[in-house]
Amino acid sequence: MAKKKEHCDCLNTVKPVRDALDVISGKWKLPIIISVGVGNDRFTDIQESIPGITPKVLAKELKDLEQHKLLKRTILDGYPVKILYTLEPYADTLTPIIYSLKDWGINHRKVVTKE
Amino acid sequence: MAKKKEHCDCLNTVKPVRDALDVISGKWKLPIIISVGVGNDRFTDIQESIPGITPKVLAKELKDLEQHKLLKRTILDGYPVKILYTLEPYADTLTPIIYSLKDWGINHRKVVTKE
DNA sequence: CCGTATCCTGCACGATACTG
DNA sequence: CAGTATCGTGCAGGATACGG
Questions:
Q1: Is the pLDDT of residue B51 over 50?
Q2: What confidence tier does B2 reach under pLDDT thresholds 50, 70, 90?
Q3: Is the pLDDT of residue B98 over 50?
Q4: Which stretches within chain A are classed as H helix?
Q5: B30 and chain A: CB distance < 8 Å anywhere?
Q6: Contact residues for strand D with beta carbon within 7 Å
Q7: What is the CB-side half-sphere exposure of residue B58 using CA atoms within 13 A?
Q8: Which runs of consecutive H residues, i.e. helices, occur in chain B?
Q9: What is the Cα–Cα distance from B102 to B99, expressed in whole angstroms?
Q10: Residue A115: what pLDDT?
Q11: Could you give the CA distance from residue A101 to residue B18 in angstroms, rounded to a whole number?
Q12: Which UniProt keywords apply (chains A, B) (predicted)?
């Protein structure tokens, strides 16, 4: 009598994978990480470097990324006050994953387009 | 005069990464892949192994995964006709990525929970 | 057993305007 | 410059019922 397949480690895998995906999925997360990563450290610079993003969405995404410790928000006193956004070193731990996804995605496009 | 940072390879990275993420993100993709992977090969078995999924959603996700060549849908003639869902070998290419995401996700939870 | 057909809901994201 | 405030919308996913 066949036992029902429980794929018992499903939750143990799905939960952390979803945690990871939540950090990088969404329409704007990756463009923002890349933009800040190449040196755009001011709100307006980031916004202008990402065509189509609105300030409301950018502000929300920056808060998300800051909570996830990928991004640091620094207030520079002076006149006028400046806000700096910079990547945390921790953000580098995402790099190998991003590149794996990139490579897989490039290959996948070939797989699905050629019959 | 500071040149505007263009992060010129943004699209070259973002596009394939998004292609990859589209395949595995969403609420049900991963549970389905895992369920089929451990041997649930009938529609109803898959449905019962994933609490909360509705047949409409399952049918749609199975079609998606089939189009992405991760899944094969086999019609077994006989009486009654049976439908078998099995993972394509190609689906294995996702495994290292899934495990990278899992490991990163497990660690990330520690990072964000401890101050 | 393997789905489709309707109808519905929430939320990510958008447009536009405004502020300390 | 670095955001907030309002209002709006599309679409992934859900509830429920039915069909070959």
A1: yes
A2: low
A3: yes
A4: 10-24, 29-37, 43-49, 55-67, 95-113
A5: yes
A6: A 42-45, 54-56, 59, 62, 73, 80, 82-83; B 26-28, 52-57
A7: 20
A8: 10-24, 29-37, 43-49, 55-67, 95-113
A9: 5
A10: 64
A11: 8
A12: DNA-binding, Transcription, Transcription regulation
Nearest CA in chain A to B22: A25
Residue holding tokens 């731990």? A93
Residue A91 near residue A32 (C-beta atoms within 8 A): no
Closest CA to A36 of A25, A47, A26: A47
Q: Compare CB distances from B14 to A13, A17, A30 and report the shortest one's residue.
A: A30
* pLDDT of the residue at A11: 81
B94-to-A8, B9, B23, B37 alpha-carbon distances in Å: 19, 24, 10, 12
> What integer pLDDT is reported at residue B10 of this predicted model?
75
State, as a whole number of angstroms, the distance between the CA of A102 and the C1' of C10: 31
Whole-number pLDDT of residue B114? 80
pTM to 2 decimals?
0.92
